[in-house]
Structures are given as structure tokens and as C-alpha cells.
Amino acid sequence: xxxxxxxxxxxxxxxxxxxxxxxLQAGQFVALLGPNGAGKSTLVQLLSGLFVPxxxxxxxxxxxxxxxxxxxxAGLGVVFQQSSLDLDLSVRxxxxxxxxxxxxxxKTALERMEEGLAxxxxxxxxxxxxxxxxxxxxxxxELVRALLHRPRFLLMDEATVGLDPASRxxxxxxxxxxxxxGAVAVLWATHLVDEVAQADRVLVxxxxxxxxxxxPEALVAQAGGGTLEQAFLRLCPSTPTGKPGA
Length: 246
Hints:
By secondary structure, this protein is α/β, with parallel strands linked by helices. It is built from 8 helices and 10 strands. The protein is globular and about 50 Å long. The two termini are about 25 Å apart.
């Protein structure tokens, strides 16, 4: 699903990513864990085509991002850290705008919208302006939208920031089940250690470098035991864990 090799990105003299390489297979739920300033958002922006790497290669779904960006991004679904919904449009209008951009026939679009909203108990909110929804329901709408074009790779960038515990757990269960069913490959970027415990793999990113790539339990073992959070803090000792990552 994803093949990234030696990605480098700098902003002037500041290097945000140093030769980052990673792969993602179909059906995997991979957590990208890192503190503030680790480079997570820069990596997400490269993977979603918003930025171009200064060095390195990147392919999504077998398509090179430099040579065939439209084909590569066609199979990508994204939920960004900052909401990208139009607050003054209804839920339905936001979703239809997305399906129109992807050229999905209206009948098919409406069927998929109904299915997605029903899965999250949002049918009654279809005609409601997004501004009137709770933070948790807005995130659910963004997830429904990200899946309307049936992507094979789902990129979640700090998607639970600002959610209450129940909404956070609901969103995580929904995305994890998609990966377990083999519907999508998921890269879940987060600064919250408790969100990575059930991941198939954990990538620890700090100061623009991948410090660990493996099973959650292997991260604990490598750090000498204890909890997953303790292992993360040993690997990134100066890390505050309660604020959104960069």
C-alpha cells in the first residue's frame, strides 16, 4: 500500500525529516507515535501530496507520487488533525461535494452516504449544518467522507484530538475494524501512547527520525520492560505526552 524510502524534508535550515523509510501492507493498522515536533505532520503532508519531499521516493498503491500523483492519491482517504469540513454546509452537502470531486455517480454516492451515516448513527443529522454537531460527530462525518470513494489506504492524523474518551474509543474501534476486515491499510498518527497498544506495528518518530519499527510488545522489551508509555518515554526522554504532536 505504501513504500517510502529515505524521505527528507527541510524548512530552510531546519530539517523536519531525516531519511525516513517505511512500508505499509494491506490490512495493517500501523501507529505512528511521536512527541511534539517529531515530524509527524510533515510526514502526513508528504504522504497526502500536500508537500513534496526534498529527497527520497514515495509510492502509494504502486503509483509513484512524483510521476503519477493523481493515480496514487485516488486510493487515499485522509482525516486531518484540523477539521476540513465546511461548517456552514449540511452533513449531506459536505459529503456530496466529496463524491462529486471523485466523479462518483449520484445514485452510488447517496447509497454510500446512507450506509456510512447509518454505521455511525448519524442518519438524523444528514440535513444538519456541521457547525451544530459535536466534536465527536464531526470526526465521524470526516471518517464517513474519507471512505466514500472506497480508498485502500487510510491516513489518520491526530484524528482524536479534542474528543471526549467515549468518542475517541468509538472512532478508534471503527478504524481498527476496517483494517482487521482487510478493507483498508491504516496509518494512525498520534501522540497518545494508549492509542497504539492494539496496533499491528508501531513506528516511533522523534526529531525527524524513525527510532523504532515493530510490535508494541517489542518496544516494551527493547526498553527493558514496564508499560508501553514508560518504554516510549525512555526512547524519547524529553517528551511531554499530553499535547498534540507536530
